[in-house]
Specification:
The complex is a heterodimer of chains A (424) and B (439). By secondary structure, chain A is α/β, with parallel strands linked by helices. Chain A has helices at 3-18, 20-25, 60-65, 93-103, 120-132, 153-167, 179-205, 212-222, 227-242, 270-277, 291-294, 303-306, 313-325, 336-349, 364-379, 398-413, and strands at 50-53, 69-72, 112-116, 138-142, 258-263, 281-286, 354-360, 384-389. Chain A has a 4-stranded parallel β-sheet with strand order 2-1-3-4, sandwiched between helices. Helices cover 51% and strands 10% of the residues of chain B. In chain B, the strands form 3 sheets. Chain B has a 4-stranded parallel β-sheet with strand order 4-3-5-6, sandwiched between helices. In chain B, strands 8-7-9-10 form a 4-stranded parallel β-sheet, with helices on both faces. Chain B has one domain. Classes of the chains: A alpha/beta (424), B alpha/beta (439).
């Protein structure tokens, strides 16, 4: 692959991340919505129905196995529209933005939407959507446990995955989930996540080659495009960036503070870019779409790893649910102790100098975890900054000033005692 | 006597210039004793000679299991309401905010966290007695899970979360089994937390059935009380009910609770017999949706002074859900799993609408006041749809008030009064008392 090839792959992924509904939704659906003029060629997608989903705990593998195209839905950035007559302003800004996008018709090309249990605001968005969705359109609630380490949670999660698998064929153009289709989907997703994980390592080791903001855009693009195409594109980017021409050695440039960002779902990579433009490298993240979505801990990246020749759908779903339950902790599913353990390990292994919390306005789960995390991270020598995300972005000007002041603090403090900032 | 104004006899200034004096129930005297006894009992349990373990529980926790294990439940939400009613919550909230807890978080949580962090409280200056174990049920919101996690970390205390899946319009058998299994586990967990061996199934079930029977009796009495409020004039308005909520929340499953509601029922029946209303000259019959605004009961008194009485509250009515049946004795944990999973805040909007409409019709209401409570997302989000449904399908006027149950900084009395005036004019203009579409 030439350098131009990997740049083209990167450009394709980033472009898809800009407008997921247009890139992954319109033009490939059996739905009645008009195709967007900016839609990509749909050769690989064929006429598969597009199923939008809301949380990274919704198993894309099952949607793929049902013959559908999974599309990660985000919130509609910018001024709010119809949601103002549905949900009060103190609902989480992500939930409001998501519902606003659906109600504004951005989801017309979708064959269905899958919500999952996360928080009170998203549950309210689901209820509001159910009351307003087009008649007959497919909506499913994946009623996941709130405490994935609790008694019976594994069996219960497997049963909920089973309910999703049984429900999806009701989407127009979908097919029943078979063991073979599930196995193939799990293998595909395992490979895609592996390729994304290569980039994750690269943005930490060589942020001069791949920025954190770019990885977030790539992850969004990969959650938008056909997964086979996305796998090829991500592999192309990784091969290109890691090739001898580009990865000959560390770039000679002044040392920049190494930052990890933590939070929920980000509608755009702009907040990360703001940090980078202020003079830091975003070398790790604990975000819904990037870090948490691709980092599956434990043995399995999905049912593909666990399968046996005789595995049937329930066994595969059980293995898949185990993989999802054992992944990187989320504040709506895991106790804060596990999250903190994960964060402390991440900041150490990635030699992070400081942590920026990007908290969605009115997001309860993250806000409850924040004070203890800040205390523990600061005690480990990593200063923390908290910024509020609302309607997809940070308040212009004010946030930039705060980030600059935070980076000044990091430069003054210097690298953390256990090796933070040791990179060139 | 009933047309008085607090602090300003002319009634010319202040947000509420004309307030009705409370026509208190005689049983209120007993209620104060019950509240005092409950909290003193909790302090005593953790005092020098105390031997009884204390659990901090959420209002929707399956408390009967703890009672059957002789564990004393204490309710931080009730404590938050108590602090709110003393208009003292803001100082505690600010303490929590100084520690990094966002002002956007639930004010019950911030009030309790502030009290916990400072070691101060509103009962003789003391915070709640230290817990031996913590039990949170997700059936009222996801917030309590996170709040209880913060509490567990602070005290280094064992925490059990009862994870009740969202019962939008019912429950699957897998969901019931999931919750039931957790209740089984809770028995073991709670026993271990108080350093006792888990009880034998037979002995435990015997005790549990006894507690559930007391819950059933109290629930039945509570429902009788709501039915008595259908009378015109209604014998009890929102102020009576918000305060009388205490036993069904915090003493549920006890004989004291049953005994108390027998008295309240008798008193309300007597009032109905005498034609004595909670509000003089009752003109308008209203429903309240959401938690009370604990620091500003004058808002309700303002309505009372204008002949508007609250004949029902979704908040108080929600405690009538624990209706155990004789056949539940065969598997009490399954019955608990079902009932605790289908409390008002864990069901879908359609079910909430059905319950609200049923109440509007049964209580013959003329309008609905929605308290859009910034702290309580599970209760408040969806109110715009409910309000529209009441207006469009029942033809009744509605009012949405922006406030918070304990943090008075989120409430502006002056503009709210202006909106109350407009609402009263709407009621007077003809929507009430015809109550169209109530058949």
């Amino acid at each position: 692959m030439t350098e131009n090839d990997h740049r083209a792959s990167l450009a394709r992924l980033v472009a898809a991340s800009r407008d997921p509904l247009a890139a992954g939704g319109a033009g490939v659906s059996t739905g009645s919505g008009p195709a967007s003029a900016s839609s990509p060629p749909a050769a690989r997608l064929g006429r598969r129905p597009v199923v939008g989903y809301v949380c990274s705990y919704v198993p894309e593998e099952i949607i793929l196995a049902a013959g559908c195209h999974p599309l990660r839905l985000g919130a509609r950035p910018g001024p709010t529209g119809p949601v103002d007559s549905c949900l009060q302003s103190f609902a989480c800004s992500f939930a409001r933005g998501l519902l606003d996008g659906l109600l504004s018709g951005q989801g017309r090309g979708l064959g269905g939407v899958v919500f999952a249990h996360t928080c009170d605001s998203l549950r309210a968005a689901l209820e509001s959507w159910k009351a307003r969705k087009p008649a007959g359109s497919f909506t499913h609630f994946l009623n996941l446990p709130a405490c994935v380490e609790g008694p019976g949670a594994a069996e219960y999660t497997a049963s909920e995955f089973g309910r999703l698998a049984e429900a999806l064929p009701a989407v127009e153009g979908a097919r029943p989930v078979t063991a073979q289709a599930l196995t193939e989907a799990a293998e595909l997703m395992t490979v895609l996540r592996r390729e994304l994980s290569r980039l994750d390592v690269l943005r930490s080791d060589r942020p001069d080659l791949l920025k954190g903001s770019q990885l977030l855009a790539i992850a969004r693009g990969a959650a938008t495009l056909d997964r086979e195409e996305a796998t090829d594109l991500v592999r192309g980017v990784a091969d290109g960036l890691m090739g001898p021409a580009t990865a000959a050695g560390p770039a000679a440039r002044p040392r920049r503070p190494r930052i990890l960002v933590s939070g929920g779902f980000l509608e755009t990579e702009e907040p990360l870019r703001l940090v980078e433009e202020a003079g830091a490298d975003v070398v790790g993240d604990d975000l819904c779409l990037a870090g948490r979505a691709l980092a599956f801990s434990g043995a399995g990246h999905g049912a593909g790893r666990e399968r046996s020749p005789a595995a049937d759908v329930p066994a595969l779903l059980s293995a898949l649910s185990q993989a999802y339950l054992s992944r990187v902790p989320c504040p709506t599913k895991h106790p804060p102790s596990r999250r903190l353990e994960f964060l402390l390990a991440e900041v150490k292994s990635r030699q992070v100098d400081g942590v920026i919390f990007l908290l969605q306005k009115f997001c309860d789960p993250h806000a409850f975890d924040y004070p203890a995390f800040r205390e523990a991270l600061e005690a480990s020598g990593r200063p923390c900054l908290s910024l509020e995300i609302e309607r997809g972005g940070l308040p212009a000007g004010q946030a930039g000033t705060r980030v600059e002041a935070f980076l000044e603090r990091l430069r003054f403090v210097g690298p953390s005692a256990d090796g933070g900032g040791g990179r060139p | 006597m009933r047309r008085t104004s607090k602090g300003d006899p002319s009634g010319a200034t202040g947000p509420y210039p004309l307030l009705a004096a409370d026509r208190r129930l005689a049983s209120d005297r007993d209620l104060k004793g019950l509240i005092l006894k409950h909290y003193l009992g909790a302090y005593k349990a953790k005092g020098l000679l105390g031997r009884k373990p204390v659990a901090w529980v959420t209002s929707g926790a399956p408390v009967e299991i703890l009672l059957a294990l002789d564990i004393l439940p204490v309710y931080p939400e009730n404590y938050g309401a108590l602090i709110g009613s003393r208009k003292a919550a803001v100082a505690y909230c600010e303490e929590a905010e100084r520690a990094g807890y966002s002002q956007d978080l639930c004010s019950y949580a911030r009030t309790n966290i502030g009290s916990m962090l400072t070691g101060r409280g509103e009962l003789g200056g003391r915070p709640l007695p230290r817990p031996d174990l913590l039990v949170a049920a997700k059936n009222i919101c996801g917030v309590v899970v996170k709040w209880w996690e913060v509490t567990a970390r602070h005290f280094g205390c064992p925490l059990f979360i009862v994870d009740t899946p969202f019962a939008a319009d019912g429950l699957t058998s897998a969901q019931v089994a999931y919750v039931r299994g957790q209740l089984e586990e809770l028995i073991v967990f709670a026993s271990r937390a108080i350093h006792r061996p888990p009880p034998s199934r037979e002995a435990f079930e015997g005790r549990l059935l006894g507690v559930l029977e007391l819950t059933r009796q109290a629930t039945a009495l509570w429902q009788d009380i709501q039915v008595l409020r259908q009378a015109s004039p209604t014998p009890a308005s929102a102020l009576d009910m918000f305060t009388n909520l205490f036993p069904i929340v915090t003493l549920r499953g006890s004989a004291l609770c049953v005994e108390y509601y027998r008295k309240v029922r008798a008193e309300l029946a007597e009032r109905v017999g005498q034609g004595l209303g909670a509000v003089d000259g009752e003109r308008f019959r209203l429903i309240w949706d959401n938690i009370a605004i604990w620091y500003d009961f004058d808002l309700v008194r303002y309505l009372h002074a204008r002949g508007a009485a609250f004949v029902g509250e979704t908040y108080t009515d929600a405690w009538g859900v624990y209706q155990y049946r004789p056949e539940d004795a065969a598997d009490p944990l399954e019955a608990m799993a079902r009932l605790y999973s289908q409390v008002l805040l864990n069901v879908g909007l359609e079910v909430r609408k059905e319950r609200l409409f049923r109440m509007v019709r049964a209580q013959r209401a003329h309008g609905v006041v929605f308290h859009s409570c910034r702290s309580c997302k599970t209760y408040s989000l969806g109110q715009y749809d409910l309000s529209r449904a009441v207006r469009d399908e029942l033809g009744l006027p509605t009012l949405v008030i922006e406030a918070d149950m304990t943090d008075s900084r989120a409430f502006s009395a002056g503009p709210t009064k202006t909106r109350l005036d407009a609402f009263l004019e709407l009621l007077a203009a003809g929507s009430a008392p015809a109550s169209p579409n109530l058949a």
